[in-house]
């Protein structure tokens, strides 16, 4: 089954594709958007546009641009923007985020849970810097190790120990790269659990509701595998931090 389709189905009830609650999203955006009455926001890996739509609803004078490789997710973002009445202030690009270019810089750049698009956290920040207006901010979300990962956790994630660091080291690396954290949010265990149950549950429910679909069995298998990998592997080991950053 196509990985992009799995992701779309799994995020049907949790369009913020990260373990971040609606309340935390609202608080993060309030801090990220607060300095200006108007501006431009770019999401490098926007998916279904969850962050951008919330930003545009909260700030009627802001404009937004989203970039993603999933054409179907972008279609859903357009539909949601029309339903919210913000479609005229939203531009969407079906493009590899590494290839995106713009004539004007952005006051806010987002990449939450999509640093893999650039090969990791610091390469993502380097890419964001190219699009950032003077005095602008970056909102980036990245995984970290809550505790030393076991072989079971690494196996379930398909990750190497070196792929992430602990929280302190993660923040230290960002600071050493010339950024200053001005706000942040560490996802709680309830946020993680709600996200994972939504991910696996939405995918499994789709399979139950579409038993004749040729992808139903694959969807159910993907949901069952992901649930087992989470519960028996990385639950309590993998953390997630969302940082609001400014350049020194």
Can you tell me about this structure?
By secondary structure, the chain is of the alpha/beta class. The chain has one domain (3-247): Rossmann fold (3-Layer(aba) Sandwich). It is 45% helix and 23% strand. Helix 4 links the parallel strand 2 (62-68) and strand 3 (90-94). Helix 8 (189-209) runs antiparallel to helix 9. The mean pLDDT is 96.
> Largest sheet, if any?
7 strands, mixed
Number of helices: 9
The order of strands across the largest sheet is: 3-2-1-4-5-7-6
- The assigned CATH architecture is 3-Layer(aba) Sandwich
Poorly predicted segments: none
Distance between the termini: 45 Å
Helix content: 40-55%
Q: What's the CATH C level?
A: Alpha Beta
- What is the number of strand segments? 7
Strand percentage: 15-25%
Number of domains: 1
Report the principal-axis shape: globular
CATH homology superfamily: Vaccinia Virus protein VP39
Order of helices and strands: HHEHEHEEHEHHEHHE
- Give the CATH topology: Rossmann fold
């Amino acid at each position: 089954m196509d990985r992009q389709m799995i992701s779309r189905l799994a995020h049907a009830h949790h369009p913020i594709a990260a373990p971040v609650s609606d309340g935390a999203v609202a608080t993060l955006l309030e801090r990220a958007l607060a300095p200006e009455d108007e501006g431009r926001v770019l999401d490098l890996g926007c998916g279904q546009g969850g962050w951008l739509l919330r930003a545009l609803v909260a700030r009627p004078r802001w404009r937004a641009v989203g970039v993603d490789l999933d054409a179907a997710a972008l279609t859903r973002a357009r539909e949601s923007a029309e339903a919210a009445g913000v479609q005229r202030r939203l531009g969407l690009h079906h493009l590899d985020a590494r290839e995106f270019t713009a004539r004007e810089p952005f006051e806010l750049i987002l990449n939450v849970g999509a640093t893999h698009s650039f090969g990791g956290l610091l390469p993502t920040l380097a890419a964001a810097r190219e699009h950032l207006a003077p005095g602008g901010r970056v909102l980036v979300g990245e995984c970290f190790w809550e505790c030393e990962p076991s072989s079971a956790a690494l196996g379930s994630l398909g990750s190497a120990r070196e792929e992430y660091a602990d929280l302190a080291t993660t923040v230290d690396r960002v600071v050493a790269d010339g950024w200053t954290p001005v706000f942040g949010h560490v996802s709680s265990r309830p946020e993680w659990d709600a996200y994972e149950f939504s991910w696996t549950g939405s995918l499994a429910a789709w399979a139950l509701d579409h038993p004749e679909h040729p992808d139903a069995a694959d969807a159910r298998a993907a949901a069952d595998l992901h649930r087992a990998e989470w519960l028996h592997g990385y639950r309590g080991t993998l953390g997630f931090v969302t940082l609001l950053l400014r350049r020194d």
